[in-house]
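Predict structure. Chain length: 615.
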Amino acid sequence: MQDENKTKEQLIQELAAMRRQLGEMEKLENEPKKAEERLRKSEEYFRAITENSSDIIFIEDKKGTITYVSPSIGHLLGYKPEELIGKTALDLIMPDDHPRAIYDFSKAIRTKEIVIPNAFRVRHKDGSERILEGVGKNLLDNPAVEGFVMNVRDVTERRRVDEVLRTSEEEARRLSKEAAVIAEIGRIISSTLNIDEVYERFAAEAQKVIPFDRIAINTINPEDSTVIVSYTAGDDLIAFRPGNVYPLADSMAEVVKRTKSSFLIDVVDEEAIGKQFPVLLPTIQAGFRSLMAVPLLSKEEVIGTLNFRTKKPKVYSEEIKRLAERVATQIAGAIANAQLFAERKQAEEAARRSEEEAKRLAQENAVMAEIGRIVGSTLDIEEVYEHFAEEMHKLISFDRVAVNIIDPKSYTFNIPYVSGAQVTNRQTGEVIPLAGTGTEEILRTRTSILIHEENREAIVSRCPGLVPIIKAGFQSIMMVPLISENEVIGVLNIQSTQADAYTESDLRLAERISSQIAGAIANAKLFVEIKRAEEEREKLGCDLQNALSQVKKLSGFLPICASCKKIRDDKGYWNQVEVYIRDHSEAEFSHGICPDCKKKLYGDFLKEEDISGNQ
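Prediction complete.
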């Protein structure tokens, strides 16, 4: 046999090899048992951890279905583990948090890293809300787990404590900020009596703690029951700009004044609010939805309101209202002081104005008296014009003054006098058609015209004859009628190159001056007419004298022949009647024959009708 031929050494080696193979087979045979043992121990270890953990351990498969939940679920959320097996985490998580939960689960499925999800609000079995927070790990490849493992703990109380602490910190910061703003407002108020400067800086500080799109400070005038807009900042409202006045009735200010307390309005029903407070219609139409009016109190009297407006709904709470009242207390004192200061200043100003007014009136009266003296001193209107212009310049500044005299028969006016800058087609001596001129307008209306920047275009469009004056650079013009015996005889023109140089007060003064000069112009005009009449009368007298002198040549006794009718002249010569009359008058003669002479001389040769001259 072959085995018999083997050496002892070979047999020993084969036996060793067989033993090794047997050992390997035994090893392979024991490996599943060891793996099973390891798995059992791992499961025991996992359960020992999960079942004794105060946290909740969830295992979900890749579809999100819960395959395991630790017993601690009962302590934390009131459920038994078996109540949740087969459900998903979304069955516990509040609906508002579902989007974040789905996102976190999808991320956990995609990654092998530990996932730290957001905190989620979940529903306790008793219906209350808890906040859970935890970490998760994708263990889908682990045969012992085969899922997504979440270790979750209840952080409800911790979150509440954190919220309380955060709220306390925010409240502390808010109060600190409010205190700083109030202190700064106090500093601003005490730094100046210029209330306009206070308003600007106050509004900037108030916006740091009170939200608004528009702020306004209004003062109440109890004498005429009106509200005056003193200051605004933010969005513009044309109806409520600084200086505007509106009725106290049917306004938020009326409610605040009556109740001495703040008033809030949330605009939900525009029509109802508009009916209750018609004054608020422009505000509502501009889109403001939250309105707050806070009283400005001085000596327990409401002197005005501090108004906040925003286009966001339901902004002003009781807390903001209380803060606004603290702010209003500060600014109310400043406004009251400013009003008192203004009243004192007004009293001083009134006294100063009275003194200035007295001086002004004295100067006006002196000038008027001098103009009257000039007018009464001479009938030379040219001399009157020069002196009158010099005196008027003491009261009214001008760059050009001109006098227009109207001729109603030719419907024109002439310019007898100009002083100052010259204007093309409007110079001394020129005659201008009345149609379309300012002079025509005054002749028609018998009233003065004051032209300034705002009304210039409208008046020029109505009176295009003013264009040469405007083109010459005159921006302010007064045209005053010259009236004599209730008739407009001309116009006094006062012109300046400065914009808005003249006021209604200047116009009244110019009218007083024109009443003086109008009489002088009328007298001068009458004097010229009388002088012209006298000249015409003198000329007529000369003509009459000449005529009479001619007539006198034929007066007295003339010796005439009783037969031939010849006249004897002063030299004794007898002349034919026609020759004598021709030489002593401007009469000329032509010759003919009368019927009597015809009959006497030619009676025998003429028919009866020829003699009578009726043929």
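Summary: The longest helix spans residues 318-377.
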